[in-house]
Design a protein that fits this description.
This protein has 762 residues and is α/β, with parallel strands linked by helices. Helix content is 36%, strand content 21%. The model is unreliable at 85-106 and 411-419 (pLDDT under 50).
């Protein structure tokens, strides 16, 4: 293959990216991208190159060789633009020099949005122990866009060279890999192998087929800068004599490269806009305890009791073990001299409005200041999408942020091996940067990690918060038994503690009690005759107040990485006031929101996993009803949170996600290359496409635009969507309008297109 053909083939692959099939906005975009290249840019590029080379025909082979070399190193199999392969610096960091900055060490993916990790299977040979395996993926049909499917393995043959060959197939109708059958077939071939070795080979194969998807924040600037660096490193340094002819040849190279970069950037910029587009609020519901309703309108509880959904609500209470089998709705009230009253034991029963949708607005109408009446928000969403969407509403309103993200182990988060650290860095940098904007000036940020990622995180945190705002590196120790063959058992995590602004940080020092066997430094003596001193808590936490959960603990939710309530209590009570907002955007089992509620803080919890519904939401309902486990037993907590003053009111919802948008967006396959005066490299190709304009109905006679968002999603929460979009807290809601805290009222039946433009057209 000639160098010219190799370059054009590679370029075509770049514009298509990973081969996927199906119907979605992303696929439409890729098809248009491919068509624009083949019908517009490719013929124009060929013509421009041929015209440029007329004075220098001898430069042709070098030109294509240099173009291929450059573009091949910055484009991945997923179509993402980043440092795919850099022969000089192949580790996490890359040297970059420009005219206006000198960045000696920055991570490869610092300029990227991390989107997801997916699997793109290819034939692969794997060696484990003394065995060699070959995995044949020719039987895999191409997945539909964004489709996640399990794979299975079937033994195919043992080759003459001893390599064991497997067919890799997608699972259908619940089919699984039959390990025992494979082991039996291998024994027939004279191969004795353990099940562990076989499963290890399968794991290695799957890991090697992981692909990270990124979006470049500024593809044009990045690629132009990198080309200039590359041209200097790989061309200029090799020149011994500069002639006018050579300078003109290199200028041709640069001009052609920049034209290609300009075209690529148009499509990457479109993905950036979709990624950062505000997202619709979907499937929203409220959870409110009976006492909160009774305070406003006790008659409304009668409606709830007689509602057809009440039976399902009772079933949920029984599953949560809030009520027993003897419960009946007649037991909820008691008659007093002043009239009907809620019985104490039932006053904190949590009502979920998903069972009472026709009564939801009536319940919400009880509150004249709705958002300020809420104790918290639970959001099911990929956390970047959530943070980016709610930022206008919660900008500089959060007091304390605690996150316990995946530790970059490979077990709890999936990465391509060669991008493991940089992918994690990109993921964390994107999300922490936004979360900082949510913090109040006196706010605090805590990042919980272990030895596998703490050294990486420090770079991010120092960059985002500034190293001068670093308060403590907290050592979170635990004394669970463990033995290592070499070295000492690893029995601590690291919690980085940063202030948004050191001089403004809100912090309340607390003391802990230290006991001594003998008198030491004039200790006190407790009622049991033990010597003690009350000292300020240091940055090594290894006592009973913060000890990790043990197997069988009452507060355990069965979540593998669940943290103890005592740990989160110390963080919240030292850095936040009552009624201030605490946030956790890697919520996990919901410990942060549970503790925040028990300590009379408001809270925001973000989690994308399905355990949002199976663990987090049930846990918070139980907290409202009065949860006796965890810190509930501590004396200082009992004063604020007990069976008499539990209760609460919170909202939970899902967000439209990036891939939801891709599925809904439409692109018009228009021809923009008819005009000979337009430059196809720079012609913006997305101005005529309809985007998500199914939501609009144009009344040409009356010169009006009618908005019907249900044509996009049938279950949009328009008030909350507008609240996030405008950055205004909701005061009141009724069936026709929403009123915000600044007095602005918006007619929900006649939305102004200009108001929601950013949601459906970008």
């Amino acid at each position: 293959m000639s160098k010219e053909q190799r370059f054009y083939d590679a370029l075509k692959d770049i514009f298509v990216g990973a081969k996927v099939e199906g119907e979605s906005g992303y696929i439409n975009l890729m098809r248009i991208k491919s068509r624009y290249y083949e019908e517009g840019v490719f013929p124009k590029l060929q013509k421009d190159i041929n015209e440029s080379l007329k004075p220098f025909p001898e430069f042709r082979e070098e030109l294509f060789d240099k173009l291929y070399t450059f573009f091949n190193r910055y484009f991945s199999e997923s179509g993402s633009i980043y440092f795919r392969y850099t022969p000089i610096h192949q580790n996490v960091y890359e040297k970059v020099y420009t005219d206006d900055k000198d960045v000696i060490l920055f991570w490869k993916t610092h300029m990227l949005y991390y989107v997801k990790t997916d699997k793109l299977f290819k034939n692969l040979e794997v060696k484990t122990e003394e065995f060699k395996f070959f995995f044949d993926v020719s039987g895999l049909e191409h997945k539909k866009a964004n489709e996640k499917r399990a794979i299975i393995y079937e033994f195919k043959e043992k080759r003459k060279d001893g390599v064991i060959v497997f067919n890799v197939l997608y699972s259908e109708r619940g089919r699984i890999t039959k390990i025992n059958d494979i082991l039996r077939d291998l024994r027939r071939e004279g191969v004795t192998i353990t099940e562990d070795t076989l499963e290890k080979a399968f794991r290695v194969f799957e890991k090697q087929n992981d692909v990270d998807y990124f979006i470049n924040k500024n593809a044009k600037e990045f690629l132009r800068e990198q080309f200039s660096i590359w041209l200097y490193q790989y061309v200029f340094t090799g020149e011994s004599e500069w002639t006018e002819k050579r300078i003109k040849q290199l200028q041709i190279l640069k001009d052609i490269a920049f034209k290609i970069i300009d075209f690529i950037s148009q499509f990457e910029d479109e993905l950036v806009k979709i990624w950062n587009k505000p997202k619709f609020v979907l499937n929203s519901n409220y959870v409110i305890t009976l006492d909160r309703i009774a305070e406003k309108n006790i008659e409304l509880i009668e409606k709830i009791l007689e509602h057809e959904g009440f039976e399902n609500q009772v079933k949920e209470w029984e599953e949560l073990e809030i009520v027993d089998g003897e419960f009946g709705k007649r037991k909820i009230f008691e008659d007093t001299l002043s009239g009907k009253k809620l019985k104490k034991e039932y006053q904190h029963l949590p009502i979920d409005t998903k069972y009472f949708k026709d009564l939801e607005l009536e319940i919400l109408g009880l509150f004249d200041d709705l958002d300020n009446s809420l104790d918290g928000w639970l959001i099911k969403s990929e956390n970047y999408q959530a943070l980016n969407t709610i930022l206008p509403k919660f900008k500089e309103k959060v007091q304390t942020i605690y996150i316990d993200p995946p530790f970059n182990t490979g077990d709890d988060f999936d990465y391509v091996d060669r991008f493991q650290d940089s992918s994690w860095l990109s993921l964390m940098e994107n999300r922490i940067s936004i979360s900082r904007d949510c913090l109040r000036t006196d706010g605090a940020f805590f990042l919980h990690l272990d030895y596998r990622a703490n050294f990486l995180a420090r770079h991010i945190l120092d960059n985002i918060f500034d190293e001068d705002n670093m308060i403590n590196e907290i050592i979170y120790g635990y004394r669970i038994q463990g033995i290592l063959q070499r070295g000492f058992p690893r029995k601590h995590d690291t919690i980085f503690f940063y202030a948004k602004r050191m001089e403004s940080l809100y912090f309340i020092p607390i003391k802990e009690r230290i006991y001594y066997e003998k008198p030491f430094f004039n200790p006190e003596i407790d009622e049991h005759g033990r010597y003690y001193s009350d000292v300020f808590v240091r940055d090594v936490w290894d006592n009973d107040a913060t000890k990790p959960l043990i197997s069988g603990a009452k507060e355990s939710c069965g979540f593998r990485t669940q943290k103890a309530e005592g740990l989160i209590k110390r963080i919240i009570e030292t850095t936040s006031k009552e009624n201030s907002i605490v946030m956790d955007f890697f919520l996990g089992s919901g410990t942060t929101t549970a503790v925040a509620h028990k300590l009379c803080r408001k809270w925001i919890g973000i989690e994308m996993g399905e355990h949002f519904y199976t663990i987090v939401l049930p846990r918070m309902k139980k907290v409202l009803a009065y949860d006796k486990s965890g810190i509930s037993r501590e004396k200082d907590v009992k004063e604020k949170y007990n069976k008499d003053n539990a209760g609460g009111f919170f909202k939970y919802y899902e967000l439209e996600q990036y891939e939801d948008t891709l599925r809904k967006v439409k692109y018009e396959d228009a021809d923009l290359f008819d005009n000979p005066y337009e430059d196809p490299y720079n012609q913006y190709v997305f101005m005529k496409d309809p985007k998500m304009l199914d939501a609009l109905e144009i009344d040409y006679e009356n010169n009006k635009v009618k908005v019907d968002l249900t044509k996009l999603y049938p279950n949009i929460d328009v008030p909350e969507t507008l609240s996030n979009l405008l950055g205004k807290w909701i005061k009141k809601i009724n069936s026709t309008e929403v009123e915000f805290e600044d007095g602005e009222k918006i007619d929900l039946k006649d939305l102004d297109f200009r108001l929601i433009k950013d949601l459906i057209w970008w």
